[in-house]
Amino acid sequence: MKSSLPIVSILIVGYNSEKHIENCLRSIPRDMRSSIELFFINNSNDSASEVVRSVYPDALVVPTHGNVGFGAGVNLLASYARAPYFLLLNPDAVIIGSSLQQLISAAVADPCVGVWGGLAVLQSGEIDNASVQDILTPSLLIRSIFGIHAKRVRSLADAQLVASVVSGAFLLIRREAWLQVGGFDQRFFLYAEEHDLCRRVSALGWKLRILPAAKFHHDTGSGARRNPLRFEMRARGNVTYFRKYYGPAMSSACVVLIYAHALSRVFAGWTTGNRDLAIAYWQLVSRPRNWMNGW
Q: HEC states along 184-241?
């Protein structure tokens, strides 16, 4: 590790990421490495830690504590970090060009913004609108049942976008904001933890922004975007979020809405011949007890 104070601490939590982590690390700009400290922890038993040591020798590989979940893993890494900015980076994400520099420059220029995010783009160069999220609300669940999405980003020309939540795949947070909220709530083992974090940061008066010029690729779900287990874990995270912020009656109603959304996707898959869509959501419909109580 470097003796001088770094500008940004990059925090990467791995899980079965051996096939992805090298591309992620090689996307970190070489001309910035003197001002970066990088921390990695492996939540699984693959060889990702060895890949990190080989590709990025300056990284600190924190000893594994088993699969403690994403939020707890980031919290552990953050306890080692010294920089004024923390970058949460998924091991299956790839930073494009000078996006990290642009993100940090924007953060330095506006001290009122606590959290910055980039914009995910597909390999074709098109915007991956799945990465542009709204904060979880009951009305969002209702809209999702009917396939009504919030505003979508159609252009990379905007200087900044006001955000209510920033994807944890590529999230820059000011150290001060992180310490004020105490990092991630470790009740969220996986999914919805960034919704909770951003909500708490916003409640303290910090602004949240997305910088379209800061782009990254994200192989969502490490190539298994419609993995039924991934959908089940996402539902558990969402339920945990609703139970934290809404009363018993409303959070129970949200569970029903999550189930209704899953049922609507299964029906849509069956009626349109989209077997993958139906299979992805069938586990939520057939085994609600696996997710309806959250984590």
A: CCCCCCCCCHHHHHHHHHHHCCCEEEEEEEEEEEECHHHHCCCCHHHHHHHHHHHHHH
Instruction: Give residue 78's pLDDT band: very low, low, confident or very high (50, 70, 90).
Output: very high
Question: Quick check: 294 and 239 in contact, CB under 8 A?
Answer: yes
Q: Tens digit of pLDDT for each residue in 235-281?
A: 999 999 999 999 999 999 999 999 999 999 999 999 999 999 999 99
Return the CATH superfamily for domain 8-223. Answer: Spore Coat Polysaccharide Biosynthesis Protein SpsA; Chain A (3.90.550.10)
The Cα 32–Cα 49 span in angstroms is 22
What is the C-alpha to C-alpha distance for residues 30 and 289, in angstroms, rounded to an integer?
Answer: 48
Structural contact between residues 171 and 178, judged by C-beta atoms closer than 8 angstroms: no
Could you tell me the CA-to-CA distances from 105 to 45, 114, 152, 172, 238 in Å, in that order?
37, 13, 25, 11, 33
Q: Which two tokens stand for residue 151?
A: 């505003």
Structural contact between residues 184 and 142, judged by C-beta atoms closer than 8 angstroms: no
Write out pLDDT tens, residues 47-63.
999 999 999 999 999 99
Break the chain into its structural domains and give their ranges: 8-223, 228-290
Taking the CA of residue 156 as centre, how many other CA atoms within 13 Å lie in the half-sphere pointing to its CB? 15
